[in-house]
Amino acid sequence: MLQNRNIVLGVTGSIAAYKAVDLASKLTQAGALVDVVMTRAATEFVTPLTFQSITGRPVPSDMWDSPTQFEIEHIALAQRAEVLVIAPATANVIAKLAAGIADDLLCCTVLATRAPVIVAPAMNVNMYENQVTQANLERLASRGFAIVDPEYGPMACGAVGRGRLADTETILAAVERALRRGEDLAGKRVVVTAGGTQEPIDPVRHITNRSSGKMGYALAEAARDRGADVVLISAPTALTLPAGMRTIRTVTALEMRDAVLVEAPAADALVMAAAVADYRPAAPSDAKLKKGGSSGLVLKLTRNPDILSEARGDFVKVGFAAETEDLIRNAAAKLKEKDLDLIVGNDVAATDSGFDTDTNRVTIIDRSGNREDLPLMSKRDVAHKVIDRVVEALAARTDRERRGSGGYASPGAGQPGGGG
């Protein structure tokens, strides 16, 4: 996985900088081509010569150093990088990246790269838990940065809490995940639905829900970033349409149903993250309804079709269950009722996850009953966790097909991963 891959390792001015030496060593031992970029403050803790001795490559730390081989250093590094990981990342550098400040070589390289960026914070517990630092981390996560959370334990300053740099193996796993993301859905077609449908009452009013579409858009972007040909079927949202995919705009549940039934049969996976209205007005008015008398307005509603149940074909089918109580029981029942491969349940009554937030806390259940409870994380990270399970389900399906056709399958292949 790491052989001959170009990794840029950013090291900032934290006492944990010495741990980055082990990370650089492990990456180099695995065959990666590691370019270390140090901030001025980092050189007060570890010398550039240390990293140069390990990686066998020059270690720039100053914007005004002579360009290597006539290259503009930060542009050359940014273009060469397949993954850029900052470990340790101080509160100061995190704040600068969140604000788009580019006053040193490392920050310029981050702004100039199109590679995945991994940020591994390390700092005093009070600095880490400060609401400004947390807001900056959330801002980075919303832009697609992968955050490797720090660990809990004693720190150099004598405090005990969360703020220790994650261990080397955890950061290495994040680097490998980032490298796989551009490859594991190559050649696959994924259909994603997003947003909340709007069911008209009259020309100026409609029935809808609180869905912002953020989770669905994050899923579409995650599938795209991992090489899939993505079709996004979107109900109305205030979000900017993501690039690099075909988008079909819909408004009502019936319009979304029609689009899904056309697109899904040719898909390898259908991920229904949209909040589809269960009911619609039976007879929407062509003209604006007036207030009328004191008796109020009575609407007759009719049931919308169940898109997930109607969508059938040889594809992995993923549903979402937004619940306010009995999350696991209700999600498991929905998975069975709609014949899903995976269901993602989330408690939308929580204030820090669910509708119209940048974070989510979900439980993923597969058709075998396997359950994975994810902690609170950005919707982008949740999206990649869900796509991880889709990839596993597709691999298991391919393995079963190979076995069924009499082809060879290696021992241990086809373990349950959510497919069915």
Indicate the percent of residues in helices. Answer: 25-40%
Low-confidence stretches: 408-420
Main sheet overview: 8 strands, mixed
CATH architecture of the largest domain: 3-Layer(aba) Sandwich
Q: N- to C-terminal separation?
A: 28 Å
* Lateral arrangement of strands in the main beta sheet: 12-11-8-13-16-17-19-20
CATH topology of the largest domain: Rossmann fold
Quote the beta fraction. Answer: 15-25%
CATH H level of the largest domain: which superfamily?
CoaB-like
The dominant shape is elongated
Q: Mind telling me the C-alpha Rg?
A: 24 Å
Subunit arrangement of the protein: single chain
Derived from helix and strand composition plus strand pairing, the structural class reads alpha/beta
Total count of strands: 21
**CATH level 1 name of the largest domain:** Alpha Beta
Task: Please work out how many helical segments DSSP would assign.
Answer: 13
Number of domains: 2
Mean pLDDT: 89
Main attributes of the structure:
2 domains; five-stranded parallel sheet; eight-stranded mixed sheet; Rossmann fold; 420 residues; disordered C terminus; alpha/beta; 22% strand; 33% helix
